Amino acid sequence: MTPAMAPRGDGVGLYLHVPFCDRRCHFCGFFTRSRRGDRVAAFVSDLLAETEWHGGTDTLRGRTVETIYFGGGTPTTLSSGQLLSILEACRRSFVVDPAVEVSIEANPASVEESFLRELRDGGVNRLSLGAQSFDDAELKAANTPHTAQEIVQAVGAARRAGFANLNVDLIYGLPGQSLTRWQANLDAALALAPEHLAFYGLTIEEGTQFSREAERGQLNLPDDDTLADLYQEGRNRLRAAGYLQYEVSNFARPGYACRHNQGYWTDREWLGLGPSAHSYLDGARFSAVASLEEYHRLVSAGMPPVAEKEPGTPLLRLREAVAFGLRTVAGVACAPLRERYCLDPIERFREPIERLTRDRLVVLHGEVLLASDEGLMLADDLAVAFL
Ligand code: SF4
Fold it and tell me: Domain of 377: which CATH number?
């Protein structure tokens, strides 16, 4: 019999999945649907019902919501009134920290200054723009809904609306991308002086247009050496511009690391709401159904829209905490994990720690296990050693 996981009482995050996009980007594997008025209104009503259902149960009893994150999809396909009604439902249903970080993902083509001002006035205090690239040819090839000019306009609108915590997401390794093109992308992003910048290597997700093109041999992807050069170039340029790296792909001005996303790498728990949203609560991981119809059916029946649940064991959670924690520059603090799981990570993982230390990929500083600069670039490989 596996030992039961003890309920936790520490702070949590809330993730809200808004599953609509105006168009499907060729690299995107997220659960999204095209926007239709009746579909959107029905979804908002279901999301409000799901939020209130959790508020009436023990789901987050005794726990404070420290961060709220609207992701998707494109949350800004909803009206400001709809988004703020969801935020209000969260405040009514849960205990929310007065200093809560409220982030919203936005597509640069879908934001007007007045809309952003309404969000800002309603308590949204962090805006994350999915820029992906500043090269119109790259954007077109990836079928994104926006142009480079619209990214610049969106940043201007966000600033005028009062957003002082702005993220810009980039993707490197897009088809045909050279070092010179990538440098131009980085320069264009830095010129906008966001407080936070993230860059992710392109992954070819199953079922996407890019995956079909790759299967047909029609996608000119950079090789591994070029990818390593692009990553290193991004890291060097952002560091030189005064950004602090705090995770493999994430950089911020001091004080602007995304608290919500940090939770994913530091074994903090969260509740996900909306179709396809993932959750991690009281040691269990679960995901919601990836279907608007099924989501509606379950929520209307007053049932949690859970598709899969994995209860986990202390050892599995410890493995994940170390694997995810090694993605962070701060590394894995072993003492709290030892206390939480009654297992000693340094003892339990002595063999991989010694091997990776010999390979100069990790360093053990007292009670903190850290990836080296080189190890950080190989974070996915490091994770395998612990999972
Ligand atoms: S806008 Fe974002 S969520 Fe929508 S298809 Fe493009 S990458 Fe995916």
Answer: 1.10.10.920
pLDDT tens by residue, 359-385? 999 999 999 999 999 999 999 999 999
The answer to whether position 171 is within a domain reads: yes
Query: 229 and 334 in one domain?
Result: no
Report yes or no: 72 and 16 within 8 Å, Cβ to Cβ.
no
278 contacts 285 by C-beta, under 8 angstroms: yes
- Count CB-CB contacts under 10 A for residue 13: 25
Q: Say how many Å lie between the CA of residue 21 and the centre of ligand 1.
A: 6
Q: Which atom of ligand 1 is nearest to the CA of 130?
A: 2
Q: 219 and 143, same structural domain?
A: yes
Rounded to the nearest whole angstrom, what is the distance from the C-alpha of residue 62 to the centroid of ligand 1? 35
- Total tally of structural domains belonging to the chain: 2
Q: How many residues does the chain have?
A: 387
Q: Do the Cβ atoms of 47 and 101 come closer than 8 Å?
A: no
Residue 299 within any structural domain of the chain: no
Pairing of strands 306-310, 284-288: antiparallel
